[in-house]
Amino acid sequence: MIKKPTLKEIFTIPNILTYFRFIFIPLFVWMYLKENYMAAGVILGLSALTDLFDGKIARKLNMVTELGILLDPVADKLTEGAVLLCLVIRYPLMWVLVAIYLLKEGFMTVAGAVMLKKKKKLGAAMWFGKVCTTVFYLVTLILIFWPQIPVQAANVLMVLCGAMMLFTLVRYAIVYFHMAKNPNTGSFDSLESVKRK
User: What is the chain's Cα-based Rg?
Assistant: First the structure.
């Protein structure tokens, strides 16, 4: 059972950074739809930086909270979804990435829920998940900052991003398969298992 967070836990530095990421989402969409691509790119870049540092700060300063663990992936998915849907306006091939993204995140959500019922959980993002996120932000930032990019170059970048998403999906599927097969793999008893990652 998740206990109600205290005021101190709600306003930790990492959680505040996560709140900013929620605020950045409508700002990014607004700027992108106004075709102010430079501002939209800067906002997305700031969001990516807060995503990079909030977890590191939480572990370094011993500020890992249940609330932060819950909100961080929600902010991630909402940000990435908003970016993809905005880019669809200019790049029709982006619909393929949207489909792959929904497939990947849908699998991760279902597999994660199944593992939680078995008292198992991935303690931290795997290296391929981090690479996938990095590729996603690099590709989308290039497409945002360079609106006049040649179609062929944009398509190559989107194919690269889609391939990385599929690779990540397969690798996570393998990880979850091994977690399901091995009784002790991924088992956890408390928040301490996350803090140690």
Answer: 18
Measured CA to CA, the distance from residue 178 to residue 84 in angstroms comes to 31
**Residue in this structure with the two tokens 């928040």, named with its chain if needed:** 191
CA–CA–CA angle 40, 42, 48 (5° rounding): 105
Please say whether the beta carbons of 69 and 49 come within 8 A: no
Length of the chain: 197
Cα separation, 70 vs 57, whole angstroms:
16
Q: For the chain (length 197 residues), average pLDDT per consecutive 10?
A: 69 89 96 96 94 81 80 91 95 94 92 79 76 94 95 96 96 86 59 41
**How far apart are alpha carbons 77 and 98 in whole angstroms?**
12
Q: CB under 8 Å to 195, separation ≥6 — which residues?
A: 59, 62, 64
Q: Return the structure tokens found at 40.
A: 């939209």
C-alpha pair distances (Å), 161 with each of 98, 134, 143, 157: 11, 10, 12, 6
Q: Which domains does the chain have, with CATH numbers?
A: 7-195 (1.20.120.1760)
pLDDT at res. 3? 63
Q: Among candidates 29, 195, 23, which has minimal Cα distance to 123?
A: 195
